[in-house]
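Customer escalation, tier 2.

The customer says the design service returned an amino acid string that "doesn't look like it belongs to this structure." They asked us to rerun it and document both sides in this ticket. The original structure tokens are below, unchanged.
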């Protein structure tokens, strides 16, 4: 039987840091020879909600804010991130999505930020007894995983009832 996870176990993913190697072809010419790495952290549900509110319907701003929030080293301002080459910004955004458990298109991400995410947080808080602050520390990938776990439990209970 699987071990039950604590709140601390579940929230541990949001504090991880990931070293990402930047491919030379997306770097400016003067940095291509040296290559380089950056340090990223996964976005939490709270981050995604704040980004959604701040960016409203501006898709490019959403991407810039996601990269800016996830970039630990070197830290960059929103203005600096918005001046990155499109290729580098796209690469970094892909990495932010990957480490955050997001494999959604920009359009699907915008839809996920809205009401369903709020409902998902409410369900997790109710089912696991978590506070809103604890739920806000979860990455979107973690939220989706726990919702799938709950759905699996309800399917198992339905099968047991019909057996």
């Amino acid at each position: 039987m699987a071990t039950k996870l604590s709140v601390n176990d579940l929230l541990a993913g949001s504090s991880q840091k990931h070293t990402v190697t930047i491919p030379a072809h997306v770097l400016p010419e003067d940095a291509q020879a040296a290559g380089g790495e950056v340090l990223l952290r996964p976005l939490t549900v709270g981050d995604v909600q704040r980004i959604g509110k701040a960016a409203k319907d501006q898709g490019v701003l959403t991407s810039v804010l996601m990269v800016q929030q996830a970039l630990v080293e070197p830290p960059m301002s929103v203005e600096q991130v918005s001046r990155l080459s499109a290729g580098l910004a796209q690469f970094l955004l892909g990495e932010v999505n990957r480490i955050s458990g997001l494999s959604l298109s920009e359009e699907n991400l915008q839809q996920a930020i809205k009401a369903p995410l709020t409902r998902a947080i409410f369900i997790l808080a109710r089912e696991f007894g978590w506070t809103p602050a604890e739920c806000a520390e979860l990455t979107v990938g973690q939220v989706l995983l726990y919702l799938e776990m709950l759905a699996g439990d309800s399917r198992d209970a339905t099968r047991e009832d019909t057996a």
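Tier 2 assessment: The sequence is consistent with the input. The CA atoms of residues 51 and 124 lie 21 Å apart. The chain has one domain: 1-163. Sent an explanation to the customer and offered a walkthrough call.
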